Automatic annotation (TrEMBL):
Residue ranges occupied by any MoaB/Mog domain in the UniProt entry: 174-304
Protein name: Molybdopterin molybdenumtransferase
Keyword tags: Magnesium, Metal-binding, Molybdenum, Molybdenum cofactor biosynthesis, Transferase
Pathway recorded for this protein: Cofactor biosynthesis; molybdopterin biosynthesis
GO biological process, one term: Mo-molybdopterin cofactor biosynthetic process
Domain of life: Bacteria
Any Pfam family hit: MoeA_N
Length: 382
């Protein structure tokens, strides 16, 4: 039976640090791993380490076209003093294994056939033109650890190991647009396509569910339908106070609202809760507020659901002063040059032009009045 509609509590802003802690506490364990083709796994978080069980190559192989020979049999060979080999050598191509008793590859034109005899006209050293066992990848080498993202540059190594698949964790995201204006004109849902691209960059799968007329009853119905098949649900729009608070009221009807309102600019009207065991994040309708909530709450959630290992902290040096007000965590988009010098593009805002030009975002803590020029600050790479 549907639960009755419950009006959510008035918007009370929680400090960002407290909000993030409460949000992460709502999340279930990392999603179950699944095996997918290696190329499709690029950008996803590995559930198992990619490790070489045996050396690559497993035996000496040719690095070039030529003739597989024993190097000792070519000693003293020259154009005017060819050395007759014990028998006709085997022609090899790059990647071919060397026959027993050979340890070098003689270039193609350094062998002459005179009747039934094969003659070397140049000497080769042991190992010349050969890749030794384990020279590509030593046995036991961990190429990419569990909790790291698989990279495109890892694919040749996976192919060398004979691994056609990789085990990864892929969170399933659902996007439900609840704004009344979107329900009547889905083309106005500009946040959905943007966030879908950002979700793909985080290694998640994305499902955009049909927009519902922006009433709490419809929002609740959409949440109940989506919760069983998704690991995280994003509610877009309708996150304001009073009559505009459709998302929180719908979430309260379908499950529970844990928090609504965070002390951050932009992103103030973001909130979150759960339907059953599925976490639900309320994203404001205004794009820069939605982006802020994505950076502050959705990205950490996807990292947790994917089992992503913590990356080393990133830092930049401010090119000029950043002044911030006490009481709110403020987001500052930064353009960072090759020297690590960061130019603030806005303060407490993520306008489209600044976001497009930014390489990272600085989050100024609510108790700070900002930073002086030249300050070394922690940043969130984009």
């Amino acid at each position: 039976m549907d639960s009755p509609l419950r009006a959510p509590a008035p918007l009370r802003l929680a400090p960002l640090e407290d909000a993030l802690s409460a949000w992460l506490a709502l999340l279930p364990a990392p999603v179950a791993p699944r095996r997918i083709p290696a190329a499709a796994a690029v950008g996803r978080v590995l559930a198992e380490s990619v490790q070489a069980a045996t050396p690559v190559p497993a035996m000496p192989v040719a690095l070039r076209d030529g003739w597989a020979v024993a190097a000792a049999d070519t000693l003293g060979a020259g154009p005017y003093s060819p050395v007759v080999l014990a028998g006709p050598p085997l022609r090899v191509r790059p990647g071919d294994g060397l026959p027993p008793g050979t340890d070098a590859v003689l270039p193609p034109f350094d062998l002459e056939m005179t009747g039934p005899f094969a003659q070397a006209v140049q000497p080769v050293a042991p190992g010349e033109g050969v890749r030794r066992p384990g020279e590509d990848i030593a046995a036991g080498t961990v190429l990419r650890a569990a909790g790291e993202r698989l990279r495109a540059r890892d694919l040749p190594a996976l192919a060398a190991l004979g691994s056609a698949e990789a085990a990864v964790r892929v969170p399933r995201l659902a996007w439900i647009a609840t704004g009344a204006e979107i329900a009547t004109d889905p083309a106005r849902d500009t946040n959905g396509p943007l966030l879908a691209l950002l979700a793909a960059a985080e290694g998640a799968d994305w499902s955009a569910l049909p927009p519902r007329p922006g009433t709490p009853e419809n929002t609740a119905a959409a949440l109940r339908a989506a919760a069983p098949d998704h690991d995280l649900i994003l509610l877009g729009g309708g996150s304001g106070e009073g009559a505009e608070d459709r998302s929180a009221e719908g979430l309260a009807a379908a499950g529970r609202v844990a928090l609504h309102g965070i002390g951050a600019r932009p992103g103030t009207t973001a909130g979150f809760g759960a339907v059953g065991g599925t976490p639900v994040l309320i994203l404001p309708g205004r794009t820069e507020d939605a982006l802020a909530a994505w950076l502050l709450l959705a990205r950490p959630a996807l990292a947790a659901l994917s089992g992503l290992r913590g990356a080393a902290p990133a830092h930049a040096r401010l090119a000029r002063k950043v002044a911030s007000g006490i009481g709110f965590a403020e987001l500052v988009p930064l353009r960072v040059d090759a020297r690590g010098l960061a130019e603030p593009l806005a303060i407490g805002a993520l306008p489209p032009g600044a976001f497009a030009a930014a390489d990272a975002v600085l989050v100024v803590p609510p108790g700070s009045e900002g930073y002086e020029p030249g300050a070394d600050v922690p940043v969130m790479p984009l």
